[in-house]
Amino acid sequence: MGEYITNKRNLRCVSLDHMIDNVLDDLCNECDHNIIYNTCNKCGNGVCNSIECHSSFPHRRNTQFIVCNTCYKSIEHKLINFDHLIIYKFLKNNMRKRRISC
Question: Is the pTM of this model over 0.85?
Answer without folding.
Answer: no
